[in-house]
Amino acid sequence: MAVPQNRVTRSKRNMRRAHDALEGANPNECPSCGELKRPHHVCPSCGTYNDREVIAQADEIDLDEDAA
């Protein structure tokens, strides 16, 4: 069974964990609508990626009232 030879102090343990902190998001501005979005992802507000519409938005879809 693996047992440490010597105790790791709180100082050494925390120094090792110094690079494990979470970083904040890096949002970019969408070129078509101006909202903030994640880089290399589809814009959640307008549905465009790389200046192309890849997801049709709900307000643009014409749903039939009787088709429920």
Element layout with pairings:
Blueprint: H1 10-16, E1 28-29, E2 36-37, E3 48-49, E4 52-53
Antiparallel strand pairs: 1-2, 3-4
Structure, described:
With 68 residues, the chain is largely without helices or strands. It contains 1 helix and 4 strands; from the N terminus they run H-E-E-E-E. The protein has one helix spanning 10-16; strands at 28-29, 36-37, 48-49, 52-53. The strands form 2 sheets. A two-stranded antiparallel sheet has the order 1-2. Strands 3-4 form a two-stranded antiparallel sheet. A hairpin with a 6-residue loop joins strand 1 and strand 2 (36-37). The longest helix is centred in the N-terminal third of the chain and has 7 residues, at 10-16. The protein is elongated, with a radius of gyration of 24 Å. 3% of the residues are buried.
* Strand segment count: 4
Number of helices: 1
Runs in which pLDDT lies below 50 for 5 or more consecutive residues are none
What's the rounded overall pLDDT mean?
Answer: 87
N-to-C series of helices and strands: HEEEE
Structural class assignment? little secondary structure
Radius of gyration: 24 Å
* Strand content bin: 5-15%
